[in-house]
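Design job #97: recover the sequence.
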């Protein structure tokens, strides 16, 4: 019997549009691979979603990005429904999305991370919590949403005035150097990509707008650094308890690697890094999506 896969996409986070593109691409690939596919544009109506999930699909392909889709919320609902789903489970998803909590775990596991602090907006107004330059970011958003670099002449008040992410912010020492990323498929790190961009850093547009960045694959690194990036990526995903596909992002300052974060719902758009790395090691997009469906599970 043909396996029925429900693809969840859209949602109502800041990453809705990217999620729709990811979901459409994955739906097409899964249909081509022979699955029965139902694409569901998730709205903020749990009753409507439950209706769309009846009759019960065999697997949910979670193509949601951002809050509620990758922070453990939808994972908890699917656990209750006992429907296997792609990507990480509730706890790993929640931990990865909570950047301060994830960094505490990475630090304890001796994975190098940048110095950081979580401060209120009032504290941020009173003075710099770290020496400039530093990065200001929401504690629980993805895809570089709301990320600002405060340089020597930067105006922190301008950031605070248009800050829609609650009363707290995470500040992190800015690490100059190169942007690297590693896709992890199960417990297998696939490759290291170096990302270059004219945007100043790998922001939302650099990630998702065509021509916003260049991907150097494999990254032109010394073998020791390349292998260490692979090792740290697998280690970071294991520390969080990730499963399925994830992606670890780094900065390399020429001497040391620093883990920025683990993304448990990496983009699956035509410009996304995970499909590109999979292709680099001989795994087609359809094969990648099929592996994700066949590896799907829920928390027991």
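Job complete. Output follows.
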């Amino acid at each position: 019997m043909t396996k029925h896969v429900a693809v969840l996409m859209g949602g109502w986070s800041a990453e809705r549009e990217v999620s729709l593109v990811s979901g459409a691409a994955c739906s097409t690939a899964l249909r081509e691979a022979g699955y029965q596919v139902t694409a569901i544009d998730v709205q903020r109506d749990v009753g409507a979603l439950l209706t769309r999930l009846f009759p019960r699909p065999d697997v949910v392909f979670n193509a949601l990005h951002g809050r509620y889709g990758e922070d453990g919320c939808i994972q908890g609902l699917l656990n209750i429904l006992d429907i296997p789903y792609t990507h990480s489970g509730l706890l790993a998803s929640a931990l990865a999305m909570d950047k301060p909590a994830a960094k505490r775990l990475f630090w304890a596991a001796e994975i190098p991370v940048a110095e950081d602090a979580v401060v209120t907006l009032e504290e941020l107004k009173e003075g710099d919590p770290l020496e400039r330059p530093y990065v200001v970011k929401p504690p629980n958003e993805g895809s570089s949403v709301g990320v600002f670099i405060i340089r020597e002449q930067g105006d922190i008040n301008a950031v605070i005035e248009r800050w829609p992410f609650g009363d707290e912010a995470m500040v992190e020492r800015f690490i100059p150097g190169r942007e690297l990323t590693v896709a992890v498929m199960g417990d297998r790190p696939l490759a290291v990509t170096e990302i270059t961009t004219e945007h100043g850093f790998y922001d939302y547009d650099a990630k998702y707008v065509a021509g916003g960045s260049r991907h150097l694959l494999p990254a032109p690194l010394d073998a020791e650094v390349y292998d260490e990036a692979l090792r740290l990526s697998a280690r970071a995903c294991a520390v969080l308890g990730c499963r399925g596909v994830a992606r670890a992002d780094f900065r390399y300052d020429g001497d040391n690697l620093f883990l920025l974060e683990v993304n448990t719902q990496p983009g699956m758009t035509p410009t996304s890094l995970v499909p590109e790395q999979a292709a680099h090691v001989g795994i087609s997009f359809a094969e990648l999506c099929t592996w994700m469906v066949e590896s799907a599970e829920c928390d027991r």
